[in-house]
Amino acid sequence: MLTTFSAIYIGFCTFRSLFFIHLPLSFWISDIIFLYKFILTSFLFCAVLKDRAIFYLAKVITHLAIISIPFYLLQLISGDLVYGIGRFINLPPHVHDDVYTNFIVFTYVKLHAIRNSGFAWEPGAFGFFLNMGLLMHLMNNKFTFDKDAKWLVVAIVTTLSTTSYIALLVVIFMYLRARGVKMATLIIFIGPVLFVLAFQLPFLVNKIASIYQSDSEDMNNIEFLSNWYFKRGTQMPLNRFSSMMYLCQLFGMNLIWGVSNIFEDSVPILKTINLSNGIFSFMAKFGLIGLTYMLNRAYVLFKKFSNSTEISLYYIAVILILGFGEQIFIINLTMCFFFLYYYSKPEEPEEEQEEISLNKLGHTATPEIGGVNN
Fold it and tell me: Does residue 163 contact residue 78 with C-beta atoms inside 8 Å?
């Protein structure tokens, strides 16, 4: 399987480099290194754990989510104490502006003093891992909303992340549909509630509209703003919409097949800009073609567990929602979707396992009985 995937990947990168992109050889070499540095490690994880890969991914994320809760509560009581713990342990990366510290299981960012960053680099990224953990947990447990699922929901709430909240709403909607709740019932009873909440809660529609307006203004002054940030030794942060619009403006049709894994080096101004849209950053790396292939493999995985096209599409919707707000499509967890569909399979009910075992015993015993009769 890895041989076929690698051949297609290298062929794709080579073809676009020769006929579409025309960048220096170093860009093609970086794309090949990416295959072995990130994609190969994701393959090894799936190949070693096989049908237990999803179980362990969900379990690890759940345990880390539970661990984050007491640290988050301590952060609310005394952020300086949590910051001091991190500085005492003194793990990299070493950020020298005294706003960030981490100790593997928890990250404290002073800019997000009332939000839970958990083991990730910021609350939105933590929300991505939590939602993915919840998806995999529900998928692996036949949509049983047990104690672990509740812990994950609690942790998602503590992130105070708009993207994570929207994804969680889709997960809840998907769960209700998977449990047999009719679409008409959801639309009639839950639809109006969600509509009111979307416009009343400050971190949903109002925040999204504010971000879009701010992003549009930034796009009109991007040259000036990027130089201003560069002179102060930092990068200009571009939000979700402005990141999308700027990459479309820069690369246009090249987003269909992508530019390179290090596309930032192809345009000097990108070195002074911090992009935040994971979908379009991935498209700049591997194109709409690469994104479509990854989502297709994820869909095959979800369809295998849910046996439902509708439920599988909800899974894809959650991934796209989370990817729109965070640079998460190039991490190892997401790369696993290239291979999980091949190695993972739903657990068989205990009754079926017992029947299979009895059948095997029956087949094994038959020759012996025949021998005795003879």
Answer: no
